[in-house]
Every structure is written in C-alpha cells, then in structure tokens.
C-alpha cells in the first residue's frame, strides 16, 4: 500500500510508514484479536507455584496461564472503532478535491493534499477607464486655462485706420478717431479761425497718433507740427519735434510720438505749400487741455516760413531775415551721368547738399522738389532729423556738383 501522506510504498501489514512514520489506522492492518467469553474470576484457579526441582533432569511443571479480558474491554473496543470511523471520514473529506477541480491534470496525485489556488486578479479595465477620464479632465482644464490666459475677456486686437489720413488712437488701442484736414490759402487767417474753435479734438498730452499715407498725399518729410499760438506776422513760429516709427506689418502707417508730454495749447500738423499767406496749406489741428507742462521748451525749435505780402508784417526788419522761396530753374545736364550710379529725386523743397555725411557739415547747395540727382553710394553714418532717420547718400547733380544728402529726403 502507498502512504497517504508521502505516497511511499509500504507492506500491506505495516502499521506505520517506513519513510515518514504515518500511522495506518485501519483494522485491516491490525493482528486479529481473539476474544474469550468472560468467565467469573472466582472460577479462575490461582497460579500454582512449584518448587524448583531437586534434580536437573526434573522439569518445571505448571498449569497454563489464562488471560481474561477486562470487564470494560468491549466498551473500549467500541470507542476505538468509533474513533477510527471518525478518522476515516475526516480523511475522506480531506482528500476530497474541491469543486471544479480536474483530477486528470498532469501530475495529479489524490494522496497529496490539495492547495486552493489564489483568486484570479480582478480586471483593471475600470481602473484604466478612471485614469483616462481623469487625464481628459486635467488636459481639458489646462486648455481652458491657457485660452483664458491668452484671450482675456474684454481684450481685443489693436484697431488701426482703414483709410488714408491722420488719426488718434485711444489708450487701449481699441478705437481710432480721424483728425480732419482743413485747407487754407492764407495760413494767418486759418490760424485766427482755429484759435477761436473749441470743437477741435482734445488729445492727451502724449497722444497715440497714426499717419496713414502712401507718401504722396502726406509726405512725412514735409510734415511740420506747429504750435498755433506761436505764429508771428513775419512768418516765425515754434515747430515741435516729433518721431515717426512704422507700424508692424503696415509700412504705409507711421506712429507719430513725442519724447515728452505736450504743454496745454492748440497745435496743427501742417503741410506748407507756397507762401504762408498765399499758398495751398493743409492743417490737421488738435488741442491739449490736460497737461502738467506749461511750455514745450525742450521740444520746440524756431522756424521761419516766407510770406508774400510783407506789408502785413508788423516787424519791418523781418524782410532781411526772410528767405523767399523763389523758384529757380533746374540746371540742365552738363556732364555725363556717372557709371554705375542710380537716379533719385528730391521729394521736398530746400533739400540741403552738404560737404560731408552729417548734419553739421558745410552746406554746399540746395535741391528743389523733383530735381534729379545721381546716387554714387552711401555712408555708414546714420542720423535722425525731424522725425526721419536714415543714412547719407553721396550724390552728383546734373550740373556735375557732388555732395552728401540725407537719404530720407530723396525718392528713388
């Protein structure tokens, strides 16, 4: 037989396993027990004791000893059999395989105790779905936060002019208002009219101004900012320096700005064409009402514009200081254009030709609007003047004279 504990082969008569010592509690392995009918103890003869023989040849003699069972032997035997039956039942339950167990599997041995396998892991589908949902929420929240950060409610892109002209932009750059152009033949009369007008646009002391021009209707190089109440009868007046920078992506738009705040007063961007009292003048007027400054001393420079009717001047000595823009004939070509040169034209009157590429160099001559010159090259010197900036061009006139001209005053 095989040991039910270690499966070692044992003899069928073994009571204990030869290998592990397991007890084989089976009545089949026990020796037969002979039971004798109990007899009354009084009928049992006492054991007779014989004396030792005198001679060695004599034999010991005695009656056989009879063993009688205990009176409670049968009850003890019944208790043992019941215990053995209970043990066999427990062994049967112990060796009984669990439900759904396949005893035909490889290596199955019914004598080896069955160990219940661990429960199968639960599906993680729900966990992954939960994590995915949480990730979507976090990603969506990040996108919403980025949109709110980049596009705050109430903010819009900058508003720019949609047609040519002079404009003022509000501080938030969300709206523009056009400054209307006014035409005058006599700028003195125009000045008096403007100073009496309180309906002109009122701007901040440091306004956001935009000039939208193709360069022909409002040439930036000829545009002047005049303080209207400074105009004198002899043509002298205060001119305010301003800067011009292009609008990003809009080369025909220029931002006009001032290094300092403007003082209280009335102003006009002006294009002067002809005599101040007899010409074709264009004014874009505005006023500054709120300012912490009382004068523009750091921004102004005095300029003088010629007048035609000198009798209107209250200062009789001004005629000697007034330059009359008398048209002069364009010199005819007297020399062959230089080899490799390019052609350019003066875009305003009184363009100064200097002996060197800087504003302090000696004045050689002047050019009138439309006068042709030949460009020989450029200097590395970069200057700023009257809101313009650029290099100096080395030019030759049609008469053969050479010099240097501030390049923003030339059209190519």
Write a structural description.
The chain folds into three domains: 1-53 and 60-115, no CATH class; 165-321, no CATH class; 342-411, Roll (SH3 type barrels), CATH 2.30.30.40. The protein is α+β, with helices and mostly antiparallel strands and 412 residues long. The longest helix is centred in the middle third of the chain and has 26 residues, at 125-150. The strands form six sheets. Strands 2-1-5-9-8 form a five-stranded antiparallel sheet, with no helix packed on it. Strands 3, 4, 6, 10 and 13 form a five-stranded mixed sheet that branches. The model is unreliable at 314-331 (pLDDT under 50). It has helices at residues 73-95, 125-150, 187-195, and strands spanning 165-169, 176-179, 181-184, 202-203, 208-212, 224-227, 236-240, 243-247, 250-257, 265-271, 274-275, 278-279, 281-288, 300-304, 342-346, 351-354, 363-367, 372-385, 388-397, 402-406, 410-411. The chain contains three helices and 21 strands.
């Amino acid at each position: 037989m095989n040991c039910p504990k270690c499966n070692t082969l044992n003899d069928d008569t073994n009571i204990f396993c030869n290998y592990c010592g397991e007890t084989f509690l089976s009545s089949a392995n026990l020796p037969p027990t002979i039971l004798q009918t109990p007899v009354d103890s009084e009928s049992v003869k006492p054991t007779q004791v014989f004396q030792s023989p005198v001679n060695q040849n004599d034999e010991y003699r005695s009656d056989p000893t009879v063993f009688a069972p205990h009176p409670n032997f049968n009850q003890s035997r019944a208790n043992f059999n019941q215990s053995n039956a209970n043990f066999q039942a427990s062994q049967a339950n112990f060796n009984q395989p669990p439900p759904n167990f396949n005893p035909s599997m490889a290596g199955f041995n019914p004598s080896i105790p069955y160990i219940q396998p661990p429960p199968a892991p639960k599906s993680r589908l729900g966990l992954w779905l939960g994590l995915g949902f949480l990730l979507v929420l976090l990603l969506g929240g990040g996108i919403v936060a980025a949109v709110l950060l980049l596009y705050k409610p109430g903010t819009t892109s900058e508003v720019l002019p949609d047609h040519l002209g002079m404009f003022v932009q509000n501080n938030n750059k969300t709206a523009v208002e056009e400054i209307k152009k006014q035409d005058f033949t006599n700028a003195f009369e125009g000045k008096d009219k403007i100073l009496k007008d309180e309906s002109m646009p009122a701007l901040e002391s440091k306004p956001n101004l935009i000039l939208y021009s193709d360069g022909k209707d409002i040439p930036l190089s000829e545009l002047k900012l005049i303080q209207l109440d400074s105009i004198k009868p002899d043509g002298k007046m205060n001119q305010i320096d301003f800067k011009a920078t292009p609008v990003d992506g809009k080369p025909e738009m220029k931002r006009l700005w001032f290094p300092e705040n403007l003082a209280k007063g009335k102003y006009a961007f002006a294009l002067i064409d002809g005599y101040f009292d007899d010409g074709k003048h264009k004014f874009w007027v505005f006023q500054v009402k709120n300012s912490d400054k009382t004068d523009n001393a750091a921004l102004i420079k005095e300029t003088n514009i010629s007048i035609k009717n000198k009798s209107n001047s209250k200062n009789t000595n001004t005629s000697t200081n007034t330059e009359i823009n008398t048209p002069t004939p364009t010199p005819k070509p007297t020399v062959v254009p230089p080899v490799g040169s390019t052609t350019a034209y003066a875009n305003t009157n009184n363009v100064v030709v200097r002996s060197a590429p800087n504003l302090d160099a000696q004045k050689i001559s002047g050019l009138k609007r439309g006068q042709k010159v030949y460009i020989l090259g450029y200097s590395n010197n970069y200057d700023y003047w009257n809101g313009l900036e650029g290099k100096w061009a080395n030019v030759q006139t049609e008469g053969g004279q050479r010099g240097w001209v501030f390049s923003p005053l030339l059209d190519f």
